[in-house]
Design goal:
This protein has 337 residues and is an alpha/beta fold. The chain has helices at residues 10-20, 35-45, 56-62, 77-86, 101-114, 128-138, 168-185, 288-300, 310-329, and strands spanning 2-6, 26-31, 51-53, 67-70, 91-94, 118-121, 145-153, 191-197, 209-216, 220-227, 240-245, 248-253, 256-267, 270-273, 277-278, 333-334. It has two domains: 2-116, NAD(P)-binding Rossmann-like Domain (Rossmann fold, 3-Layer(aba) Sandwich), CATH 3.40.50; 126-286 and 317-334, Dihydrodipicolinate Reductase, domain 2 (2-Layer Sandwich). It has nine helices and 16 strands. Strands 7, 8, 9, 10, 11, 12, 13, 14, 15 and 16 form a ten-stranded mixed β-sheet that branches. A six-stranded parallel β-sheet has the order 3-2-1-4-5-6, with helices on both faces. β9 (209-216) and β10 form a beta hairpin.
């Protein structure tokens, strides 16, 4: 499969490496407004024979390709998806689906009109620790859930478009964690209440911290505490997760999965628990962007439908904008239309 890639920045360089690692996919062209940067990336990973262009339309008119990979900032997503679908070209895009909810709805109108394949790279679903937790939840390891706690703390200083965002953490990173809530629980949220703020000394112009409470079906409560302006004791990018179930607890902390279950016995006033068990990571399959690229390749060939197609991912990005709506209004916001 020949792939046109849009974007030669840091993430673009990583995706080029992922393509290099594939036996079935080769780059047909690389697009970036900075031609010198794109040319340097091509020389590093492949050869000068790969075309370098400034716009997707230029590449579509000049090279033969089977699909598009969009690793550009989200404000360009709508135009790129429109151009790809106009040529009946399937497209894999970096998260988020769109820069606004209006853009997301416009994208969905295009997807439905063209009946085309648009896949969002929610690669966190396919990190090994995440897949390990998911396997335990699906097996009913701790029974019915009642509470999920999510913590994400990083100390970052980012330039570029991040400094124009009113909510840099929410509008960039949080889509991963909110998508994982849906993934783990297999359900859509009912309500959300949230606050945001920018801590003293933050390197961002917009609010870099958020606290949110979600109500999910079956009386499951999910709390989300996150910051991109932390001053120490960072979490992994996956975040720290705690799942309270009727039979025990699963934690993901520093990418290590642990289970502790109750024995059903009581000693005095204390409930007795088994010893905590560290769970071996799932093995034997690709992860992250490698998994997504393989899944996209198989879908383009007609073998299955990826889990993170736009028709599903619209619900994850909707969570982001519902959180922002709650922050702005200071009220509980419902997900019912």
């Amino acid at each position: 499969m020949r792939l046109i890639q849009i974007g030669a920045g840091n993430m673009g360089a990583w995706w080029m490496q992922v393509i290099d690692d594939s036996d079935d996919i080769e780059p047909a062209a690389l697009i970036d407004i900075d031609s010198a940067r794109a040319a340097a990336l091509v020389r590093k990973h492949r050869s000068d024979s790969i075309g370098v262009y400034k716009t997707l339309y230029d590449a579509l008119n000049r090279v033969q390709a089977d699909a598009v990979l969009d690793v550009s900032p989200p404000q360009f997503r709508l135009a790129h998806i429109h151009a790809a679908l106009d040529r009946n070209m399937p497209i894999l895009i970096e998260k988020p689906l769109a820069a606004s909810m209006n853009d997301a709805r416009a994208i969905m109108d295009m997807v439905n009109a063209h009946d085309s394949l648009v896949v969002v790279a929610q690669n966190y679903r396919y990190h090994v620790p995440i897949m390990t937790v998911k396997s335990l939840l699906d097996a009913g390891e701790i029974g019915r859930l009642s509470k999920v706690t999510v913590e994400h703390y990083r100390g970052l200083s980012l330039s570029g478009f991040h400094q124009q965002l009113a909510y840099p953490l929410l509008q960039d990173m949080s889509i991963h964690h909110l998508d994982l809530m849906r993934f783990f629980l297999g359900a859509e949220p009912l309500t959300i209440f949230a606050r945001s703020w920018n801590p003293p000394g933050s390197a961002f112009n917009g609010d870099a911290s958020v606290a949110a409470i979600f109500d999910f079906p079956n009386h499951v409560v999910v709390t989300y505490d996150a910051s991109w302006s932390s001053n120490g004791l960072e979490t992994s990018w996956n975040g720290n997760w705690r799942f309270e179930g009727e039979a025990g607890v699963i934690t993901l902390r520093d990418d290590v999965v642990t289970v502790q279950k109750r024995t059903g016995k009581i000693s005095g006033r204390d409930i007795v628990f088994d010893e905590p068990r560290v769970i071996a990571p799932v093995a034997g399959m690709p992860s992250g962007q490698h998994y997504l690229l393989r899944e996209f390749y198989e879908a383009v060939r007609g073998n299955g439908v990826p889990a993170t197609i736009a028709q599903d991912n619209i619900h994850s990005i909707r969570m982001v904008f519902k959180v922002i709506e709650s922050i702005k209004s200071g009220t509980v916001v419902t997900f019912a239309e």
